[in-house]
Fold each of these.
Amino acid sequence: GKTLIAQVEPAAGGALEKIEADVVLVCIGRVPYTDGLGLKEAGVALDNRGRVQIDAHFATSLKGVYAIGDVVAGPMLAHKAEDEGVAIAEILAGQAGHVNYDVIPGVVYTTPEVSSVGKTEEELKQAGIAYTTGKFPFTANGRSKVNQTTDGFVKILADAKTDRVLGVHIVGREAGEMIHEACVLMEFGGSAEDLARTCHAHPTRSEAVKEAALAVGKRAIHM
């Protein structure tokens, strides 16, 4: 039918960009499904966004009642809720259950896919954290070129002083699969140098992750 024109304003500021498309999907956010559950009447405290308030061990204001998942703060993702479920089960069993909220990957299952973990550049700027950036396009990746899937890139953000990886962002085919080596690296406090020196099989799309890590130190091989 008709061509729709959307005006897009970059999150970091800048000039408006017009994009012509056949369909526009507008996402305005999600809310926790807590209405009608009688939480307030039972004595379970909610925050100003209707989310259940919990402490560091997932306990609510009502003794013996715990909450996880989409009804509490944090990304509304199934894998985040799953990790919280495991953590609370461990806590109830007397163990030390824990969720690292700084390393929860997110994936948008579009074509190409979009995946990310950790901080964005905007968040690092707002926090006043000095960082370095490494970026590598799939147009320079052998596997992507052979399969004619060269849209996208890998971007790695690392602490300017320690080189510790603070965030990784991928746009491209199978981006949702590739993000997890970044998650493992970040769980162990790894650096861009650690990732850059890890041997990656050729030809694979994951080589772009290594190249982006090399680019943090301005020494990518295939740029």
Amino acid sequence: MKINNILVSQAFTSSNSPYMELSKNENVKIDFRSFIEVKGASSSDVRKQKINFSDFTVVLFISKKSIDHYFRLAESMRFKVPISMKYVCQTAAIAYYLQKYIVYRKRKIHIGKKSFQDILPYIKKHSKEKFLLPSSDILKPEIPKMLKKLNIFWKRAILYKTTSSDLSDLKNAYYDILVFFSPACIKSLFENFPNFDQNNIKIATFGKNTLDAAYKAGLKIEIKVPTPKYPSMAKALEKYIQEHRYKNYSTVTDLAKFLG
């Protein structure tokens, strides 16, 4: 099967996206559509969780969205974030984004390498601090488990929620490959199309949790990312498209024409 159309279940972010290069190089049409929407919590929602921002000395940021909603709610609740507040960011990209709201001081920010597990030694070392974990309503279950084992004072604050987008306009659309990056996107697919029949549609997933959700939903997965060889979705898609292009040539003569 020749790959002509791909739907990425995320909003379009940049013209410099590797997907744009993929589209041009492999002559495939790539559409972007967010399968989920983010809705921020209100001040009253935070109070109902019995969260008082002033009770905490360290904020754990595991995403850029958690930064946006923490500072949005701090402002709406008239909480002036003290200069003494410390921050732990799961990745360098998250720490860089934090500079949108604070003046960067190295002594105040600890940065992990990639996973939440990377920041555990720092948390354990500063066990006397009081930690706040801003998050969405969806959180990897292993994160609370890891924090509970450290015997520290910490609380989770749900500052935003993810809901399924209305995808009714895609009812009659057809794509050769659907690309998913979160379990919430898988959930959105079936909430919008309860009778979704995969047929010949290929499914690509990023991350173990997304893969597990796809399997649980009964989907057949063709492309699983990341892998040591293909850490990015764009590269994995490129390889998959190229492999299928070779398969479409039934004779040596056809293949020679393709290879030029």
